[in-house]
Amino acid sequence: MFSGALPREQDKRRDGLFFDISLAQWSLHKALQSNRITNLDFPRITREKFDLAAVEYVSTFFRNTKTQYLSELRNITVNEGINNVLIMVDGEGDLAETDPAGRKQSVENHFKWIDTAQYLGCQTIRVNARGRGSAKEVARAATDGLSHLSERAARSGINVVVENHGGYSSNGKWLAEVIREVDMPNCGTLPDFGNFTIREGETYDRYKGLRELMPYAKGVSAKTYDFDESGHETTMDFKKILTIVKQASYFGYIGIEYEGSRLSEEEGIRATKDLLIRTGKALS
């Protein structure tokens, strides 16, 4: 489909931190959904407004995956000095669909995002392990779907990671067991600080889940919702969380993913960045 991936530049870690910081596009989903900005604006905004040099895209904000459009986006990132880290893929079907034909179609629907990630120089695509059935049935289907997708991704040098993103995947033990069953070096997790609601009225312990998922992490999502006057996140203990991340010997990107409503998107992004830097320095 495409040829010629971007060369991956040496990541430039901020002084005093044990991790790098990227900006997840979902942090600006309100601006994107209202057409105040576009996918092509995202890299420039990341650099100019937030002084960050790495981005994580969301597939649903791409106008298309044709070469001309992707070339334009790639040129923008080169000009802005932006590192394309990953693409969060949604809306392409359930990889843990228990019907084999439906699961096969869902896997194939993700192939274009592997090609897109490779063309843009991303390291990873984030997928969802959703399906209907018992925990065992969905786990078997997820293992099969992820295995086939990861085999295809490996040929392009791309990682496949699963986020705790609702349903069984928000059960840290369940998702960790699925990744162990897949047992492929390019298949892992994207632990999200906030997504541990299995279903309405049922949540999984955030810190337990992070401990279970971090050994397989190839990315981390710093979900935030609100902050107090001292700049601390009000719904979770960031120091405790980043301690778990560090204890897992994770030194890669942590993506800012602000999802609150009281602060504006820009204010929330800056508050999350400040908290990551302040807490990260204290732990480094």
Question: What are the main properties of this structure?
Answer:
41% helix, 284 residues, two-stranded antiparallel sheet, 16% strand, eight-stranded parallel beta sheet, TIM Barrel, 10 strands, 10 helices
Description:
The protein has 284 residues and is an alpha/beta fold. The chain has one domain: Divalent-metal-dependent TIM barrel enzymes (TIM Barrel), CATH 3.20.20.150. Helices cover 41% and strands 16% of the residues. It has 10 helices and 10 strands. The strands form 2 sheets. It has an 8-stranded parallel beta sheet with strand order 6-5-4-3-2-1-10-9. Helix 6 links the parallel strand 4 and strand 5. The N terminus is likely disordered.
**Average pLDDT reading:** 95
Low-confidence stretches: 1-12
Helix-strand pattern: EHHEHEHHEHEHEEEHEHEH
Number of helices: 10
What's the story with the biggest beta sheet? 8 strands, parallel
Order the strands across the largest sheet as they lie in space: 6-5-4-3-2-1-10-9
CATH top-level class:
Alpha Beta
Distance between the termini: 43 Å
Which shape, going by the Cα principal axes? globular
Helix content: 40-55%
Give a short summary of the structure.
With 284 residues, the chain is α/β, with parallel strands linked by helices. Helix content is 41%, strand content 16%. The chain has helices at 29-33, 42-50, 67-80, 100-109, 111-120, 135-154, 172-182, 206-213, 238-247, 265-283, and strands at 20-24, 54-58, 83-88, 124-127, 159-163, 187-190, 197-199, 202-203, 220-224, 253-258.
Topology:
Blueprint: E1 20-24, H1 29-33, H2 42-50, E2 54-58, H3 67-80, E3 83-88, H4 100-109, H5 111-120, E4 124-127, H6 135-154, E5 159-163, H7 172-182, E6 187-190, E7 197-199, E8 202-203, H8 206-213, E9 220-224, H9 238-247, E10 253-258, H10 265-283
Parallel strand pairs: 1-2, 1-10, 2-3, 3-4, 4-5, 5-6, 9-10
Antiparallel strand pairs: 7-8
Helix pairs in contact: 4-6, 6-7, 7-8, 9-10
